[in-house]
Design brief:
The protein is of the alpha/beta class and 539 residues long. 29% of the residues lie in helices and 17% in strands. It folds into 3 domains: 390 residues, Glycosidases (TIM Barrel), CATH 3.20.20.80; 44 residues, no CATH class; 71 residues, Immunoglobulin-like, CATH 2.60.40. Helix 7 links the parallel strand 9 and strand 10.
Length: 539
């Protein structure tokens, strides 16, 4: 595999609304991020991925864009954005923007004109006389009626997020112009939102009945996807030193190889979702009990099947997922399980991603009342679930565990008022545990999630075998343990993780290796302690 900067650096995802409020209106903003550049520098990350900051009615908090070339006033100005790029670059940190082009906001002028069938815009979206049977990612129907045009339009997400018609070459030219605009401003690449949905079967056949995503085969991984991505690469991306990561739900390793093999010139890496189903049946609202094997199997499958054929990402959290300690670790062993999960993940092959707060071991807020939640998906799913006959109590349990707002509570900087995020009450309440879990506290302790993350970042920078080496499972059938080996021509790394809160027997002898990392100060003979993780190295 070709060596490149975007395979070697840690990416840090910022959800701007919740990172740092600089002007005391309760909403995080770009000047707030600028204040924290030294924090990012010190942590050691090389790239920032910024969730959308564009002009938007904020129905889906920025994933519904009404102007791709301007900044939402609550986040700042275009000048703030230019300053952010400059400050990050001064700190040797690259910046990746979120590119949300499967859909726009219904307030985008393109949609407004399309509704009126104005000129070339008549055909910018998907329109039908009859309501088609496709399901929305947010629950319910994906086709809704527009009174003014007298037709149905497609929205795979909220009603306010109509899907663009990518078969229309004018749409593709407009997207390319948006990309050039940001690349010319100095941005270093894009995280491409739901990119494997852009190409559709434009005859819009009705889908067979299904509780989840009816009609999926007509809008997910359509063959034209490769054509369109290659076109963006050829006309725009290849002309800049930049990278793209595609968000791609429902892809298999062989799809990912088509999307990311360097010779095909489409994307540079993808976010796959298989391991996000470790505690559910594909759709997160159908929960099942988590078992360590449910994480090991998909992670190992992707390591084994993509090596040499494409490039993967390593993530456990983002702004759409509940916190990983709650899902795959244990609140009783917050430090141990957070650090074990980080060890398990970040010594694999792929570009590593940290979601804000993960590096200090933030946990779910788990708000009890529906009106404490702000997320449109949460409210839509509640309504949809109640319609299907689930009780209020049952729906609230799902939401407490899986709502996206669990990851969107304000970043916990200190034990000051509102966690040091803002002097006024924030748009979404702070997690009440901020007095114990916050950056200041984590930096003060000598054994903390924060210091452990820093250590991993240093190790990945030091040993290329962690980035590029081959992967091999060890002891795959062991249900409690996740152990693997990474090798290149000269070096060898062994990772051993106890995925449970019990002591487990372990008698492998790695005495000819150096123990370069562990989340326990003392190792016991023939025993791995709860959530213990070890990394061994040999030249
Ligand atoms: O997410 C797409 C996506 O797959 C999620 O909607 C996912 O199905 C859901 O959040 C899991 O609960 C992207 C963005 O990351 C998300 O924030 C947006 O809401 C969505 O696209 C629409 O733009
Ligand atoms: Ca603000």
């Amino acid at each position: 595999m070709k060596k490149t900067w975007f395979k070697e650096q840690f990416v840090y995802q910022i959800y701007p609304r919740s990172f740092k409020d600089s002007n005391q209106d309760g909403i995080g903003d770009i000047p707030g991020i600028i204040e924290k550049v030294p924090y990012l520098k010190d942590l050691g990350v090389g790239i920032v991925w910024l969730s959308p900051v564009y002009q938007s009615p904020m129905e889906d908090f920025g994933y519904d864009i009404s102007d791709y070339r301007n900044i939402a006033p609550e986040f700042g100005t275009l000048d703030d954005m230019k300053r952010l790029i400059k400050e990050l670059h001064k700190a040797k940190i690259k910046l990746v923007m979120d590119l949300v082009v499967n859909h726009t906001s219904s307030e985008h002028p393109w949609f407004q004109k399309s509704v009126k069938r104005e000129g070339k815009y008549a055909d910018y979206y998907h329109w039908e006389d009859k309501k088609k049977k496709w399901g929305s990612f947010f629950g319910g129907d994906a086709w809704s009626y527009n009174e003014e045009r007298g037709q149905y339009y497609l929205h795979l997400f909220a009603k306010g997020q109509p899907d663009l018609n990518w078969d229309n070459p004018d749409v593709r030219e407009d997207v390319k112009d948006i990309m050039r605009f940001w690349l010319d401003l100095g941005v270093d690449g894009f995280r491409c939102d739901v990119i494997n949905l852009i190409a559709k079967d434009n005859t819009h056949p009705n889908g067979h009945w299904s509780l989840i995503l009816r009609g999926k085969k007509y809008f997910c991984n359509h063959p034209n996807l490769h054509k369109y991505l290659h076109e963006l690469n050829r006309d725009v991306l290849s002309k800049y030193d930049c990278f793209t990561v595609g968000e791609t739900a429902f892809v298999k390793p062989k799809d990912a190889a088509l999307l990311t093999h360097p010779d095909r010139q489409e994307l540079d890496m993808v976010f796959e979702f298989d391991h996000m189903a470790a505690d559910n049946y594909v759709v997160k609202w159908f929960m099942k009990k988590f078992k360590p094997m449910n994480l090991k199997k998909p992670l190992s499958k992707w390591q084994n099947q993509l090596n040499g054929k494409g490039w993967n990402t390593l993530y456990l959290e983002n702004h759409d997922q509940a916190r990983s300690i709650n899902r795959f670790g244990s609140l009783e062993y917050r430090y141990e399980s957070a650090t074990m999960l980080a060890t398990m993940l970040y010594f694999q092959q792929g570009t590593p991603f940290i979601y804000q707060g993960q590096e200090i071991g933030m946990t779910n807020a788990g708000f009890e009342q529906l009106d404490q939640y702000q997320d449109i998906e949460t409210h839509n799913i509640y309504r949809f679930g109640r319609k299907l006959g689930f009780s209020h109590k049952r729906m609230m349990k799902k939401i407490r565990m899986m709502s996206r707002d669990n990851a969107r509570t304000p970043m916990q900087w200190s034990s000051d008022f509102n966690a040091g995020f803002s002097n006024v009450d924030p748009w979404l309440s702070v997690n009440p545990n901020y007095k114990e879990i916050n950056v200041v506290e984590e930096q003060k302790k000598d054994q903390s999630v924060y210091h452990y993350f820093k250590r991993i970042i240093d190790l990945r920078n030091k040993y290329p075998v962690i980035v590029y080496g081959d992967y091999k499972d060890l002891d795959f059938r062991n249900k409690s343990l996740y152990s693997y080996q990474r090798t290149d021509k000269t070096d060898e790394i062994i990772v051993v993780c106890n995925g449970t809160k019990r002591d487990i027997e372990y008698s492998k002898d790695y005495s000819d290796f150096t123990l370069i990392l562990s989340n326990y100060r003392d190792q016991k003979e023939n025993i791995l302690q709860p959530f213990e993780a070890r990394v061994y190295y040999k030249k």
